[in-house]
Please model this.
Amino acid sequence: KNAKVPILGFAAFSGTGKTTLLMQLIPILRHDGLRVGLIKHSHHNIQIDQPGKDSFRLREAGASPVMLVSSHGRAIITEFQAVKEPVLDEELLAFDQSELDLILVEGFKATPFPKIEVYRPSLNKPLLFLEDPSIIAVASDCPLDIPSTMLQLDLNQPELIAVFITQRFMGHA
Model:
């Protein structure tokens, strides 16, 4: 693995609430003193640059990667030569981990690394942990009838999910 710090994924079918949970968890983890990075897998063409801007015109001219830098932040835009599914281990090589304590990952559900499954029975989707041994817990909005060997987390209590993450991945008791 190319992760230099602990890495934890969130796996679920689209529309289950992965992003919503992450938006609740990240401020809690940051309040606890953790420096948190995130990698999100998207099935859409990413367009963070705007037509008409110099950086957009320079990319159209063929420059890749293009790095935008200001006193407020940095963005690197790389155009891939061929369309291919991203590989998490390769993306970790391009991800600056030097100032992080934890990397959270949304998506990459087929990749084997520790993940929390986000599950809502009301969506009538299958449980992923039954086929994915790298899922370490299931966060659901209601109690599930699953084996006691699989940890259940309450999706409505992100503070307790954050406690689980810091205990499991950061060694905090």
